[in-house]
Amino acid sequence: MEGEVGTSLKCEMKGNGKGVVVNESKFPLSFWEIGVFGVVVLSYALSLAFVYLTMPASDYSFLKLPRNLQDLQILRDHLESYTSDYTIQVLVGYCVVYIFMQTFMIPGTVFMSLLAGSLFGVFRGVALVVFTATAGASSCYFLSKLIGRPLVFSLWPDKLTFFRDQVARRKTRLLNYMLFLRVTPTLPNTFINVASPIVDVPYHTFFFATVIGIIPAAYVTVRAGIILGELQSVGDLYDMHSIATLFLIGLVTVTPTLIGNKN
């Protein structure tokens, strides 16, 4: 429709006996959708500001999103002195940052998972990562359901077509298929979060697949965070024991889907 921002006009031109499809793309969000996006960003910013203002006066120049292991180790060294005395503030700040990164597809959540293990240990770290990752994925799901359709169509048209076909073929075993996607790298988790509401994956299926499917990787990453000082690269996260564990869990998860496909 000509008056809307975000429509894609498709014109069919005929030449040499063949149809040629020409796409004329405009900016994929309306002003109202941009407003919703802005409100969500402002909410996260206010939450972080509240956490910052309730922390003791100090030099917080070390506070930034870690992009490598060196940044992460510096952040861990500073936060350790605050975690015991300001546990609630650190927890809230961690959750807000992780959920924000998941919601807006900002890379680097693997470093946040390592930080959880380093600061809180394996059990509490895994629980924290599973909670924040699920909350962030859910936030991304609902935001995409509200305003994400034009973005998904413009950014990942081929993947979206593939995903929609696979979901349509597996309606009776959709939870198994979504678990399969979460455990394996068939499709990026970021794409799954954004595209699921577009291809009509029910939220309860999305939720349970996310909660269960991210536990293995969360355990591996959080456990590695305990020995953060010994890591030389992100590739060191996956030793033979970790790989074998993920493989077995993935095999158990995928088996019902494979049996269903064969039948």
TrEMBL record:
One of its GO terms (biological process) is autophagosome assembly. Pfam families: VTT_dom. Residues 106-225 form the VTT domain. It is found in: Membrane. GO terms for cellular component: membrane. InterPro entries: TM41A/B, VTT_dom. Keywords: Membrane, Transmembrane, Transmembrane helix. The chain crosses the membrane at residues 34-55, 91-116, 122-143, 205-228, 240-259. It comes from the Eukaryota. This is VTT domain-containing protein. It comes from Anisodus tanguticus.
